[in-house]
Specification:
Blueprint lengths: L20 H14 L1 E9 L3 E8 L4 E9 L7 H17 L8 E7 L2 E7 L6 H8 L4 H20 L2 E2 L8 E3 L5 E3 L6 E2 L18 H4 L8 H16 L9 H9 L13 H10 L10 H5 L22 H6 L16
């Protein structure tokens, strides 16, 4: 785990492995019945491996997440609680900035999610390459990221594992949010006490074992991610969780002396990383913030929409309007 004020923001990741013998044995059937042909292993997790593959008559390039659902005591909670939620949620979501699900395949002891392939890799790898992101690129990326989360919000879905590794990029570097393994639907007033996510990204209420509701925990994680994009390091040193929580609760966020991020971007990060969940801004308020309000939403390769001139903006209802007061979200 790379710490505060380091230019490397990566976490320890497992090296890609081969497909399991059982998956390999079933590969000819998958190719024949589902027209899914595995190519290269992209990565692996606790209970799954992700492979690049081709799918369908047109041999569309896809990512195939192969999940081992063989029952063990270690995996029991995942198989009975988390996986059913993930299956339900990925079927619901249809948005340009969310990894699209093409098909869900079941075969003995395994489930495969056939999803959109993201040729641009993930945000973690991009940040390791570029160290810091210029503000124009950061605004474009962050605006798309928030759009994806607003789509989740429309279904009362909380992701609970937002981090750079789960923000994928297509060949044009459009955001594609993925990995909904810890996601769940939290209806208004409903609470959860489950610890989810990576320690460096999760909200202080989760670290403290408190119950939470709404999407304030996801909002916190967006602040951590924005900090990483603009600064190139983590905002908090998680080697000592107790001290990290103390700094979070004291609202102490340091920016390196050499940081070139604008005053407006720093102000937004500070507003998002509020220790008291009800004080964090809504997604709408984030979009209306001083830093992000001039960034239109669009998908590349479309061109950046031209903003209306000041005179046009005051005379046409379609022009940018004065931002409303920041609305707070309540847990």
């Amino acid at each position: 785990m790379v710490k505060e004020e380091s230019t490397d923001v990566s976490e320890n990741q497992e090296e890609p492995e081969e497909l399991s013998p059982k998956t390999k044995a079933f590969a000819p059937t998958l190719e024949k019945e589902h027209k899914l042909k595995f190519d290269k292993i992209l990565g692996s997790g606790s209970y799954s491996r992700v492979a690049r593959a081709t799918w369908g008559d047109k041999k569309l390039e896809v990512a195939a997440k192969v999940i081992n659902i063989t029952s063990t005591r270690e995996k029991d909670d995942y198989i009975k609680k988390f996986l059913p939620r993930e299956k339900e949620i990925v079927k619901l979501l249809k948005h340009d900035n969310i990894c699209r699900l093409y098909e869900m395949i079941s075969f003995p002891d395994h489930i495969i999610f056939v999803t959109e392939f993201c040729a641009g890799g993930d945000l973690l790898r991009k940040m390791k390459d570029i160290k810091t992101m210029n503000e124009d690129d950061a605004k474009f990326t962050f605006r798309q990221f928030i759009a994806a989360l607003m789509h989740l919000q429309s279904y009362n879905i909380v992701h609970r594992d937002l981090k750079c590794e789960n923000i994928f990029l297509d060949k044009h570097e459009n955001v594609k949010l993925g990995d909904f393994g810890f996601s769940r639907i939290l209806k208004p007033g409903e609470k959860s006490g489950t610890f989810c996510g990576s320690r460096a990204y999760v909200a202080p209420e989760i670290l403290r074992g408190r119950e939470y509701s709404g999407n304030a925990v996801d909002v916190w994680s967006t602040g951590v991610i924005l900090y990483i994009m603009l600064v190139g390091s983590m905002p908090f040193d998680d080697r000592n969780p107790t001290k990290m929580i103390e700094r979070q609760l004291a609202h102490k966020i340091k920016f390196p002396k050499l940081c070139t991020a604008s005053v407006q971007s720093k102000a937004l990060i500070l507003e998002i990383l509020q220790p008291h969940a009800p004080n964090r801004p809504t997604y709408k308020a984030i979009c209306e913030s001083e830093w992000l309000k001039s960034q239109p939403y669009y998908m590349k390769p479309d061109e950046h929409p031209k903003l209306p001139t000041p005179s046009t903006a005051t005379t046409t209802p379609t022009g940018p309007q004065k931002p409303k007061d920041s609305k707070r979200q309540h847990a």
